[in-house]
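Lecture notes, structural biology module. Today: joint structure prediction for complexes of two components.
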Amino acid sequence: MKVLVLALAALLPCLAASSDADPGKSLGSPNAPIRIEVFSDFECPACKGLHEQILPLLMKDYIISGKVFLVSREFPLRMHQYSREAAGYATAAARLGKYQQVADTLFLTQTTWEVNGKVWDAVAKVLTPAEAGKVQLLAKDPTVLSEVQRDVDAGIAAGINQTPTMIVTHGTSRFPVAGAVNYNLLRSMLDGLLK
Amino acid sequence: MVSSSKIFRVVVLVLRVVLGAVFVYAAWTKLRQPWELFAMSIDAYILLPYWAVVVVARTLPWAELAIGLALVVGRWLRVWAGAASLLLLVFFVLMVRTYVKGMQIDCGCFGLGDPISPRTLARDGSLLAGYLFLTWAGFRDRRKAA
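The predicted structure, tokenised, for the full assembly:
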């Protein structure tokens, strides 16, 4: 029961997230010794791989136990026609505490909407009618659009030019991890930093 | 009047120090961060098994440092320039192969933000030409000494 409560606490959006992290897009304790910012693009296949294969392992091994604080950042690439629209819906959904559900479905159905362009159809599936209405309005809200752009600007300022890129921060050290990730190597690095 | 052999010696000296510094810099960018980051760059080429990725990631930066320092110092030029040429030839072939296959990955040469592109291929190709020239110069000096 205790473990379940802890796990749920980690899975809930962090109300006490640090000021520059959208609480709706963060997982784990903001006081964790390691912070990982994931810059991704919903239309990028390697981001889908990271989201579906690596993030669940990170969650199990490091986030639930309070060792890693994970922040999702939007980095829609110009080469992808619908990724900014998808980032807008996801960021809007984060305002309702539905970011993870929307991110999950966007990556799950990536190969469909990137062809037919029906991004909203994928998003709407995981929302109630009331939530869907709010997300559609929020997606056009200037504050949501500027939040997406802030993430992009932060990524460019950090020298990011491909997705996915993770910025691993431990103390004053920042380490960028670009492209597809081998989890054994990532785990070895995180364990080394935690020693 | 400056003799052509003197100009040649100056060119070799400048190239040796600059190209040695390039290897030292490449080593420094890898050694200042956890070795796993360079290992991930190697792994992205999808060429080596996991154990080999680990071995290369943990040893190659030290080899680059040793070769770079030896080039700057300038002893046994043909040996160290030859080693640098061989190493860079391997890197270059792998980068060309990766580019031709359309894989969009970082080259792993000097840290993050260095995706394989015509620019990186031109840069590494030029460096390779420089190391090959130094190797030739090293053998030429030895023949002259003999």
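Point to remember: The first strand of chain A starts at residue 26 and ends at 27.
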